[in-house]
Design goal:
By secondary structure, the protein is mostly beta strands. The chain has a single domain, classed as Roll (2,3-Dihydroxybiphenyl 1,2-Dioxygenase, domain 1). The protein has one helix and eight strands. The protein starts with 5 loop residues before the first strand and ends in a 6-residue tail after the last strand. The model has no long low-confidence stretch (mean pLDDT about 90). This is VOC family protein.
Length: about 120
């Protein structure tokens, strides 16, 4: 498996509204908003931005999501798999890998149709 670039940037915030307005002021357009203080923004054909609000006492984080066209267990042994591909609630599959410096990366691919 190889990746094909950046799919998205996932951001956590303490204030969904302020963060959404900030990125809209930078040219992003709100694609959709959820009923739990999160949403997806786009700017052209580049990676999308998903912002989710977390409690004030929780640290905020950021995750870069890499795109893959399909799932595969065919990885170079230098890539440490933290969690294998799993189906998500939003219609894709994701896996987590760790780089040599200990950072984790999410790899996302389209979900294959469920076997019936």
């Amino acid at each position: 498996m190889t990746t094909e670039g950046i799919e998205a940037v996932y951001l956590e915030t303490h204030n969904w509204g302020k963060s959404a307005r900030f990125f809209q002021a930078l040219g992003y357009t709100l694609d959709f908003e959820t009923d739990h203080n999160s949403g997806l923004l786009r700017n052209g054909s580049g990676p999308y931005l998903f912002i989710a609000e977390v409690p004030e006492d929780a640290p905020v984080g950021m995750q870069v999501v890499l795109r893959a066209s399909k799932t595969s267990d065919d990885l170079d042994p230098v890539v440490e798999v933290v969690t294998p591909f799993e189906r998500t609630h939003h219609g894709a599959v994701e896996m987590t890998v760790r780089d040599p410096d200990g950072r984790t990366w999410t790899v996302q691919a389209p979900a294959e149709p469920a076997e019936g």
